[in-house]
Design brief:
Blueprint: E1 23-25, H1 33-42, E2 47-51, E3 56-57, H2 66-70, E4 75-78, H3 86-99, E5 104-108, H4 111-116, H5 125-131, E6 136-142, H6 148-151, H7 157-160, E7 163-166, E8 172-173, H8 178-190, E9 197-201, E10 207-208, H9 209-220, E11 225-228, H10 231-240, H11 245-259, H12 269-274, H13 281-287, H14 290-299
Parallel strand pairs: 1-2, 1-4, 2-3, 4-5, 5-6, 6-9, 7-11
Antiparallel strand pairs: 8-10
């Protein structure tokens, strides 16, 4: 597989443009947040990196942490709590942000929420909250991440044991590179022309988990295997690892979505936002130090 060039941002405005600085990055030490913060720094902006235990403290469940994080900020990258009250939390946060002079919100949502949340609407409540905030807003709906295979604990058995057992069958998913997602987020936070947009983000190719694992095996020179399992077999595996039943049922629903290839359609969000195509999975494989992630997984 040929690979696209590594992520290189297109020319963007300087910090003296109409976009405010600093930019608050919630979940700033997480998979997406730290990449958004790095992207902001590369473009000359000042990210205020917030997390529950970082230098800038932010906790969705402690509203006393909100104002110190928000003071002097003009734009916010929003990663919600993913809890049952996330919609109400984001609504209250957006109101507080507006009162303190914030003008722009960029929300990390998920493509799968819009595809599976047809009954309760709970998973999309955060999107409604930012749309109704009265602020400039942009919503990002990515597919599953390339980086899940190295940075998500549920996938660590691939690195620690050499195998991945999931109830995903031979379904296809157009995994998105988080460098692309971060570039879109930074553009929406710092440039004009993205307000009111919902960007559905995918990679350029829908792949099976078997194809993904084969690509990672080639890159690492290790014997890695993918074993599709049934929902019931996965329940047993997760119970043995100590996961609560409610969580297991939730992720089984998400994996079932992949198994049925319901999210396999490619989307044009990266091209719409950045004017270029998303990177191929091979680009992620080529630049990733899998040994360091394997060591991290083994230590957990």
């Amino acid at each position: 597989m040929s690979t696209a060039p590594s992520s290189s941002p297109s020319p963007s405005p300087s910090p003296s443009s109409s976009s405010p600085s600093p930019v608050l990055v919630l979940g700033g030490t997480g998979k997406t947040g730290r990449r958004v913060a790095d992207g902001l720094r590369r473009r000359g902006f000042t990210p205020r990196v917030a997390s529950r235990s970082g230098e800038v403290r932010f906790d969705w469940y402690d509203e006393s942490s909100w104002d110190p994080a928000l003071n002097g900020v003009g734009a916010v990258y929003v990663v919600d709590s993913q809890g049952p009250g996330a919609g109400d939390e984001v609504r209250a946060f957006a109101a507080r942000a507006a009162a303190l002079g914030v003008t722009r919100l960029v929300l990390l949502s998920a493509r799968i929420w819009a595809e599976v949340d047809h009954e309760s609407g709970r998973l999309l409540a955060t999107e409604r909250a930012v749309r109704e905030s009265g602020l400039e807003w942009t919503i990002l709906r990515p597919s599953w991440f390339n980086q899940n295979f190295t940075e998500e604990t549920g996938f660590y058995p691939l690195l620690t044991e050499g195998e991945l057992r999931l109830p995903t069958g031979e379904g296809r998913e157009p995994f998105i590179d988080l460098e692309d997602l971060a570039d879109v987020a930074v553009a929406a936070l710092t440039e004009e022309g993205h307000a009111g947009q919902t960007y559905i983000l995918s990679g350029p190719e829908a792949m099976t988990l078997r194809e993904v694992v084969a690509a990672l095996a080639d890159a690492t020179g290790r014997e890695l295997a993918y074993h599709p399992v049934t929902d019931d077999e996965y329940r047993v595996l997760m119970a043995e690892r100590g996961h609560p039943a409610e969580y297991v049922e939730f992720v089984i629903g998400l994996f079932g979505h992949v198994r049925a290839s319901r999210g396999a359609e490619l989307s044009d969000g990266v091209r719409r936002a950045l004017g270029r195509e998303p990177q191929e999975f091979g680009a992620y494989v080529a630049r990733t130090d899998f040994a360091s992630f394997q060591e991290h997984a083994l230590q957990r």
